[in-house]
């Protein structure tokens, strides 16, 4: 009988442990990655344009903090409300595209984003093999659904899954596990 990654301590190349042991690390990784993606997005905004018709991107701390809070709320599923509030829909679309590209490129090449690497976790295929491009693309495109309501949908999916998979992981046939040293 074949063992799944959640049943064994050796889960494929560069991974160990179970999916159940990484929820806190996943949250920390998402926060780290959001700061990195935001920094890239904001640098682009400062270079190429403002936040909206009446708002110019600047290096003023209050503007940066305000936009970061908007960005975090957007990433966490409240974007439709916030896009209608003061900030440009264009930059929202750019931010979402940047987040998806960032995650797909890093997970397809390294099996982890920088945030995941810093927190000691990796993405693997459900069978324990290295994750493929299809799985990475599916899991990251479904992040838009998982992130609704401060990742409420994703947390419900994690809670209902014996392998602690959000919807993106289920449909992408992936799992997030601790990286072996």
In terms of topology, how is this protein built?
Blueprint: E1 15-16, H1 23-48, H2 61-84, H3 89-110, H4 114-119, E2 121-125, H5 133-141, H6 143-146, H7 148-160, H8 167-172, E3 174-179
Antiparallel strand pairs: 1-3, 2-3
Helix pairs in contact: 1-2, 1-3, 2-3, 2-7, 3-5
Task: Point out poorly predicted stretches.
Answer: 1-13
The number of helical runs is 8
- Name the strands of the widest sheet in spatial order: 1-3-2
Largest sheet: 3 strands, antiparallel
Shape summary: globular
What value does the Rg take, in angstroms?
17 Å
Class of secondary structure makeup? mainly alpha
Give the N-terminus to C-terminus distance in angstroms. Answer: 28 Å
User: Helix share of residues?
Assistant: 55-70%
Domains, number: 1
- Percent in strands: 5-15%
SSE order in H/E notation?
EHHHHEHHHHE
Mean pLDDT: 78
Q: Can you count the beta strands?
A: 3
Structure description:
The chain is mainly α and 181 residues long. The protein has one domain (24-179). The protein is 61% helix and 7% strand. The protein has helices at 23-48, 61-84, 89-110, 114-119, 133-141, 143-146, 148-160, 167-172, and strands spanning 15-16, 121-125, 174-179. A three-stranded antiparallel beta sheet has the order 1-3-2. The chain is globular, with a radius of gyration of 17 Å.
Compose a concise summary of this entry.
The chain is mainly alpha-helical. Helices cover 61% and strands 7% of the residues.
């Amino acid at each position: 009988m074949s063992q799944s990654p959640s049943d064994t301590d050796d889960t494929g190349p560069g991974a160990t442990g179970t999916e159940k042991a990484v929820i806190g690390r996943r949250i920390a990784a998402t926060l780290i990655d959001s700061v990195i993606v935001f920094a890239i997005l904001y640098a682009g905004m400062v270079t190429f344009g403002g936040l909206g018709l009446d708002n110019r991107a600047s290096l003023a701390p209050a503007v940066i903090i305000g936009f970061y809070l908007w960005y975090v709320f957007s990433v966490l599923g409240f974007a439709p409300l916030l896009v209608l509030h003061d900030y440009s829909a264009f930059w929202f679309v750019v931010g979402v595209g940047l987040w998806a590209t960032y995650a797909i490129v890093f997970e397809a090449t390294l099996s982890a984003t920088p945030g995941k690497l810093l927190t000691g976790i990796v993405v693997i295929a459900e069978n324990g093999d290295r994750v493929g491009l299809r799985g990475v693309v599916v899991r990251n495109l479904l992040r838009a659904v998982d992130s609704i309501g401060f990742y409420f949908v994703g947390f419900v999916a994690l809670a209902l899954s014996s392998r602690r998979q959000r919807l993106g992981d289920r449909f992408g046939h992936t799992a997030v596990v601790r990286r072996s040293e």
